[in-house]
Amino acid sequence: MASGDSYTLALINFYCREKLYNHVCKVTSEAMKKYGNDNILHFWHAFGVIMQNRVSEGMRELQELEEDKNVVLCTILCLVYAHKKSKLVDRETVQQLDARLKSERQNCSEKALYFAAMYLWHMNRHDKAREYIDRMLKISNGASEGLILRGWIDITSDKEQFIKKAQKYFEEALNRSESATEVDALLGKARCFELKHNYSNAVELINRTIAAYPKYTPALIEKARMQLALQEWDQAVDTARRCLVQDGDNIEATNILVLHSLCRIGDYAQAVDNLGELILRIDKNEPKNSALYYNCAVTFSRLCGRQIQVIHQTYTLTERAMVLAKDNAEYTIEVGNQLLLMGKIKEAMTYFSKALKLDGTSVPALIGIIKCQIAENQFDEAKQQLELLQEVQQSIGKVAEVPYLGAVMANRVSKDVERVTPMLNSAVDIHFSSLGKLPLGMEYYKKLNPDFIIQIAKMYLAIGPSEPDTFTQRVPITLRRCGSTLDPISKGLPGLRDGHYLLAKVKYYSGAFDAAQATLQICLDNDQTFSEGHLLMAQINAYQGKFNLANQALDMALSYNFEIRDSPSYHLIKARILKKNDEHEEALKILKTAMNINGVRKSDSGKKSKGPAISLSDRVSIFLELVEIHIVLKQQPEAAKVMQDALHEFAGTPEESRLNIANAELALGRGDIDQALSILRSVTPSHPFYVKARERMADIYLNHRKDKRLYASCYRELAEQEANPQTYLLLGDAYMSIQEPEKAIDAFEAALRKNPHDASLVSKIGQALFKTHQYIKAVNYYETAIKSNNQTSLRMELAELYLKLKQYEKAVSTITAIVKQEKTSHDINSLMEEAKSVMLLAQIYEKVNMPKQSLEALYKCLDAQEKILKRVGVEQPDAREKQRDIAAKICCDIANHLVNEKSGEEAISFYKKALSYSENHMESRLSLAKLYLHRNEIDFCQKECTTMLQKDEDNVEAAMMKADILFIKGDFETATFQFQKILDRVPNQFSALVRLIDLLRRDGKLEDCLPYLEQAESACLNSSINPGYNYCRGLYEWHTNNPSVAMKHFNLARKDTDWGEKAVFAMVEICLNPDNETLGGETLEAVGEADGNKQNLALKTANKLLKELKPKSAATKKQLDLLENYALVSTKQKQSVEKALSSFISMLTEDQNNVTVLLGTATAYMFLKQVPKARNQLKKISKLEWNSANAEDFERSWLLLADVYIQSGKYDNATELLKLCLKHNKSCSKACEYMGHIMEKEQAFKDASEYYEFAWRYTNQSNPSIGFKLAFNYLKAKRFVDAINICHKVLSDNPDYPKIRKEILDKARNNLRT
């Protein structure tokens, strides 16, 4: 039985919903081959036949089914409809059928009620269908098929109260095992998500349907539609093609391909081919479906930018519809519209007149007639018809074309520009109100009617400015409205050339030159022969001063259309190019030629021009350019004459005030400020350039008269004169620019009262409150504003404010609410807001030390950003580079997290991904280079550094890293030269100076850095308190064994945000080891009681400094923990050392190869006299690859291990390690001292003295212990004079130093005497 075949019934339901009634007949015919003479199938077949206007045939089929209890109700209902649809209605039979219906309804089965409800639903009788299905559900105790049908009836009823309930019916059915995969239940729930604009969830449900029923073609169609709603064009096309593989004649799949070729890629040749296929497929599968022919024709003809080949195809579709329904006025009107699009005015008028005879009240027919009359310049007749239409409109409701036609008439006949803008605004508001929240698709594009929007946009541009306002940088209202009107086209029709061309004009006139060029490039990429596009590109380049590019674009325009030479724009651009090239005489000739073009002067207005009509603003631009050329040529009288001619020519026009402003600029150029102000004052509020004149006056008062009071008064008068949001906004911005935020807040609040839904005003007030340190008030203001104006941007700003105030919990809850809220829009701006909010959430998690959550948020952010990048190139080309930079930043942040997690390979892949988005993202390249260096992948690191320096030779960090590489490779000379180059250019580049000090120390030439320290001191305004300089000086003093002076300098840098942490860490290290001993070593060190007291005092200082430090990052926190443990070790008290050891061992579980931790562990073992364990830790370090980041700890560990080897008499092993120390640090005095000790033990006193000489030199001759040893070895080597000199030096600094006088000085003197 077909009643149990939910798959077949789902197909029937789908095709009935789509009104594809021949498909219904085909499905039922195929099913009857399987089920035989099934009456349910017979009924739906008959229904399909009747809906194709084959009424008699359908009635004969229905009459055979009247006795079947399952279909009796739907059969009677359908027969009643069929009789009423007949040309001759048999009223007696209809009455009999009504009577029988009442009788049968009383004792009918649940199946009869179900199919009756299903029939009534497809006839759009939702209330009656609901009545039948509710009764069926009551009888059947809530049968699944009844619940599903009830859900569909509700969801298609267009009544909000029923739509909300629909989802629960589908979910109840899907929760039952017998209907868990019902096609209509799954698709019904998907439709619920669609109506909530949750298209992603809808796709998931449709995918479940496809998985359960792979051959169910309608599911693929629904999926393609949802992908279109998500603006995933490529995926939608793939799904449509997959659909055509299953069903080669699928009409909806073909529609999607046509939409793609027209809207997405603008390939009109492909669109013509696709339309040809569509016509054939409709002819074959739905030959009687006039509505289908009509809807396709209307939709596609308005999407093609009036491309004649496409319109020929849509005209064919319209003709097919009219042949099937000759008396249908709607179809007849559409034939007229198609002819109008082809420019066949007279033929179009014939059809509009015919339609008016078919339907005397048809408003679209009357609109068509008026359009024809305007096109034929029959303005009197058009005016009469328009007045009639305006009267009719009051009774039938608003129609967008009526105010638009009124605007056309006002502009072309009465030249009343002030009336045009309100009428255009009204037309736009009415037009877009019909769109609602429709998803992208056939219905959306039909109602959008891009052709109509293009005509409105052209009208806006015709009455707007013809050049950008680079002075005030304010976008006129007409341009803003024009831009917002074109916005749906730029997003939904990236392939429509004219839409992008007009939007490029809007952006150009608004002063957004880069955005204009990016948008215009889309037009030229789609159509290289578009001469108007090349001309506009030339205009934009010329305005920006890129005259070579302007000339190239001009030549391209001419090559495709030689008539461009007759355009005033051509002459203007050519003149500007010549003027730039100092060819002023040629420019003058060009402009004089332009002045002779028909229509430029008022006296030419009666003559007919070959080219397009010249706008008023273009005429004025030619005059003004001519004035400028005369001034350049020092032809002041001629310039004044042209200006006076212009003022006379355009007196009383909207452009008069523009000329006055230009005249004022001339006066200002002569230095006549009073005259300039006088001219500007003459521009009254009735002039269109009044606001610009007032802004220019304000600028003169501020920048020429230096009078802030009069500057503000200009804007205050403007706000009083024109009390609207824009003028109050200008006043607020003016107050902010002169540092009066309190008054600015008052002005912004006044603007907000005028426009309470403007989130940007709330934002300005919030920012002004923050700048005045009214933080609590700012928070309260945002919170109050969000309650009445729940915009994502305001929530984002509130979260950022919480972040600045370090109220992290509130910041997280605010931003989480944004991230979790259900998405109601899938346009690209919503995606950008989503990505921005998730990125902010990641930043907050990072601040509160929640790295895992931060990384998860960044992955989610990257997913959203990748969706943006797929669409931004087409929808917002000017934002492409910015969005790629954002993607690069996200990838870089992810990689930084992965570095912290020790996932090096993954981090590298993300750094590379960041660079694939933006090769100039220096943060990623620098971090990648650092990671390579850390991993000892030197060649890769060097490659990245070289690339950075090629792009930016002043990149200090790249230069420093390259120098580090050279240092690692042993090329000290070149490495040093790199830093010297930086410091010669910028002496106070302290980061470079720090690295140079370290490099010269390691090269054994520390004294060479003194000239650079002196240069830095001279370059600083106050070097004595400069933290960068003091840190560098402290470093130098520390390395020259002058710890007390080093501490003073570090202390002066201790409170700085940039250098403070480094300075404190350096001070702590000095306190822990002031004499630079080998902690844990026993060979050279022997601390006395006095030294012990001194060390205890130093330890107290170190602990105090550590407690003061507030770590700003995880890395700083780790370093702080390490130093705290080293402080415990430095006490040499068993309990403290054991506590530190336990902490070090815990740290090693996280990172077994951490050199600092391994050294700390070894040092602790040494103090605990567990030498073998210490030696094992130190051997681990000796096997690790050296890197500059841990250079100091490597050196200390090698020294300590050498000490252990010396203690056990393994001098060869120790020597090998000490030479390694000296290889990486030639100034390592301790390594020299140990080498001297070994040589001394081996009785090689001459060699020992050489090493002690180096140790003495590198400790700045200030370590008496080394002085003693040097003098002793001089004595043994019989260098008595040298021994005496060293003794004198030691005793001069340390008069009480023990033994040296008796054991060395006296003996050396005695040896000299003998």
Provide tags for this entry.
single chain, 1314 residues, mainly alpha, 0% strand
What does this structure look like?
The chain is mostly helical and 1314 residues long. It is 75% helix and 0% strand. α24 packs antiparallel against α26, α31 runs antiparallel to α32 and α52 packs parallel to α54.
Structure summary:
The chain has 1314 residues and is an all-alpha fold.
Q: Would you tell me the structural class of the helices and strands?
A: mainly alpha
Query: How is the main sheet built?
Result: none
Specify Rg, calculated over alpha carbons: 43 Å
Runs in which pLDDT lies below 50 for 5 or more consecutive residues are 605-611, 1086-1090
Percentage of residues assigned to helices: over 70%
Q: Provide the β-strand percentage band.
A: under 5%
| Overall average pLDDT | 86
Globular, elongated, flat, extended or rod-shaped: what is the shape?
Answer: globular
Oligomer: single chain
Distinct helical segment count: 70
Q: What is the number of E strands?
A: 0
Distance between the termini: 134 Å
Q: SSE layout and pairings?
A:
Blueprint: H1 6-17, H2 21-35, H3 39-51, H4 55-63, H5 72-85, H6 91-106, H7 110-122, H8 126-139, H9 144-155, H10 160-174, H11 183-195, H12 199-212, H13 217-229, H14 233-246, H15 251-264, H16 268-285, H17 290-301, H18 308-324, H19 329-341, H20 345-358, H21 363-375, H22 379-396, H23 401-414, H24 417-433, H25 442-448, H26 450-463, H27 477-492, H28 497-509, H29 513-526, H30 531-543, H31 547-560, H32 568-580, H33 584-595, H34 616-632, H35 636-649, H36 656-669, H37 673-681, H38 690-703, H39 708-721, H40 725-737, H41 741-754, H42 759-771, H43 775-788, H44 792-804, H45 808-820, H46 828-847, H47 851-875, H48 880-900, H49 904-917, H50 922-934, H51 938-951, H52 956-968, H53 972-985, H54 990-1002, H55 1010-1019, H56 1027-1039, H57 1043-1053, H58 1060-1072, H59 1089-1108, H60 1114-1130, H61 1134-1150, H62 1155-1167, H63 1171-1183, H64 1191-1207, H65 1211-1224, H66 1229-1241, H67 1245-1258, H68 1264-1276, H69 1280-1293, H70 1300-1313
